[in-house]
Input
Amino acid sequence: METGIETAFTPWASLGGGVLIGLSAVMVMALFGRIAGIAGIAQGAMALPGAAKDRDWRWAFLAGLIVAPLAVMALGGAVAQAVPDNLGGMALAGLLVGTGTALGSGCTSGHGVCGLARLSGRSLAAVATFMAAGFATVFVLRHILGGA
Amino acid sequence: MRALWGLLSGLVFGLGLVISGMADPAKVLNFLDLAGTWDPSLAFVMGGATLTAFIGYRLVWRRKAPVLDQSFDIPRSRTIDRPLLVGAALFGIGWGIGGFCPGPAFTALPLMAPGTLVFLPAMLAGLWLGARIKAGGSLQDRGKIRRSAAS
Output
């Protein structure tokens, strides 16, 4: 896996984008009475076992996510994105993210944003665990195996 | 009507991901790289999003029911069990390898990077696999710390 390329520290854009994410979570609660966890929304859209049954808005929500970068570009904005090109690694990563969020009942948005906003101890435990695992994984890949 | 509002909610979420930088795996991986090219921006994303949701949820919950549905459906489980922790750990490892969590994997789709086109189908397959494992309950049955098999 490649070592890090510097990215600019963007506190204001990140804070503003974060507020929009929070606003969307509030919209989903106000409109549909649900937690705006993307893993859960995708599971519901795919009608997986144990997932919620209201599929109509979930498909539309995922479509909204996909349309967002196109809207930014249509308005003349740039969408910065550097995706790792180690395809074997990306396949493994995708499988782990999907399996893990399904088993753990949530992702960065479900446990992170929505769970912490509900002051859920269960979500706090999940966030602490996936953050620690993320920090450890990048440390091993970049500084032990990568030798950076 | 529900679909239209769903689309709008997703669009706001996606715009937030793009504007905040959370949609860029390079930024996410740098946030996780404390010992290297650390970029603390994502702490501001999480802070802004969580604080907004914290305030907004409390205003919304003054209502008896959501606008377009019968009732609020909020997770009730309080058990910190093995599937929660094993799942979160697996997710964190995958996040650290690819720099994508589920939301950004969707917003990345129209840019069609090869890594995205591999990650997204693998993630959907993983969601299916994880749902099956959870429905089967194998993790709970084998666990030594067997608490009330909630959720």
User: Anything to note?
Assistant: Chain B has a mean pLDDT of 91.
